[in-house]
């Protein structure tokens, strides 16, 4: 008898259909809309394997509704949506997609950095709204990126990829991390700094740290006050690391050149969120890994884990 697999989103058919060799598959038919919680709790009642996205909360409540569940496969590198202690309590394995979205996310960070520094979204709106009537010397002037200082908070794979790109712009690279990256320091000239030193000296502050109990609200009013008045703040890691209310008040007062945000505490961000009223906030809908190559690689890692489990083999990329 085939194992029962439930998929919480409509995924590409060429990825899903080969799994029919191993699984009896049921799938939420919507690609864009998140499955309602009550329907998800109903759907997991019989399944042995669950394939989820970052927007699907796998917690004690869900696990209590899923007596047959043995494996959760998460289409994300982060797993803030999964209660790991609860998984262990119920004896459920879980996997994620590490290592395949490094370059796409680092590229997106630099896209945000350039967009905020050179006021690219603002300039495009200026043109489309018919405001471009002539040229004048200080029209839509921005900040140079080259030969400035970038401070990276969180020097994992993606943080290091951002730092390498920064060297191509002749930027001085400071970083703050739980542990020193001595090899990267020697190879590329990156310099370790305390959080305070990094905030005080950086022209661009990039958050790449994981979201956990130690990083919730890491950048609040006190930290924002330390930053240069014309600094740029970029976050493509996780929402909740920045105190969004403090960021709004700081920027509303005229401090900071701009902020580039791909992630928010609550997603999707409400359209009445104060940050969206500021012209120098570039806001994106969590598209850090949204390249064809990265998303295909993520789906493939999930597929490989599911195929292995379906055949009774060891599952890789476990997070439990």
Summarize the entry for a quick read.
34% of the residues lie in helices and 15% in strands.
Describe the structure.
The chain is α/β, with parallel strands linked by helices and 320 residues long. Helix content is 34%, strand content 15%. It has helices at 13-16, 37-43, 60-64, 84-90, 102-117, 120-128, 157-168, 182-188, 195-201, 221-226, 244-252, 292-310; strands at 3-7, 23-27, 49-52, 71-74, 93-95, 149-153, 172-176, 191-192, 204-207, 232-235, 258-261, 281-283. The model has no long low-confidence stretch (mean pLDDT 97).
Secondary structure elements and pairings:
Blueprint: E1 3-7, H1 13-16, E2 23-27, H2 37-43, E3 49-52, H3 60-64, E4 71-74, H4 84-90, E5 93-95, H5 102-117, H6 120-128, E6 149-153, H7 157-168, E7 172-176, H8 182-188, E8 191-192, H9 195-201, E9 204-207, H10 221-226, E10 232-235, H11 244-252, E11 258-261, E12 281-283, H12 292-310
Parallel strand pairs: 1-2, 1-3, 3-4, 4-5, 6-7, 6-9, 7-8, 9-10, 10-11, 11-12
Helix pairs in contact: 5-7
